[in-house]
User: Which sequence fits this backbone?
């Protein structure tokens, strides 16, 4: 279940990245503030790149969490099987109830 939470965060970051990818028309800032458009575009591009990298890292983390959970479950299943086998063998050896 934890991997789903990480996947959800990755999706949210991807959505934020998509929102950051925009083009600004210098005319939208008016005559006096038109010079702000290029630096604002640079900041948006940098933020979008950072958000994309973060989303990718979160996706990798979710994959690692899933892998860890699968391995843990495998070990848990094997431990239970070994325990049941040992319990059965012990009961058989001593002639007790099975």
Assistant:
């Amino acid at each position: 279940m934890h991997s789903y939470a990480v996947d959800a965060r990755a999706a949210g970051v991807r959505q934020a990245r998509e929102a950051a990818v925009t083009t600004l028309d210098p005319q939208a800032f008016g005559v006096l503030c038109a010079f702000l458009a290029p630096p604002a575009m640079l900041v948006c591009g940098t933020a979008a790149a950072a958000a994309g990298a973060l989303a990718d890292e979160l996706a990798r983390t979710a994959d690692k969490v899933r892998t860890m959970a699968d391995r843990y479950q495998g070990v848990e299943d094997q431990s239970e099987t070994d325990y049941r086998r040992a319990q059965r063998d012990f009961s058989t050896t001593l002639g007790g109830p099975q």
Observations:
- The chain has one domain: 2-88.
- The chain has a mean pLDDT of 87.
- The two ends are 36 Å apart (CA to CA).
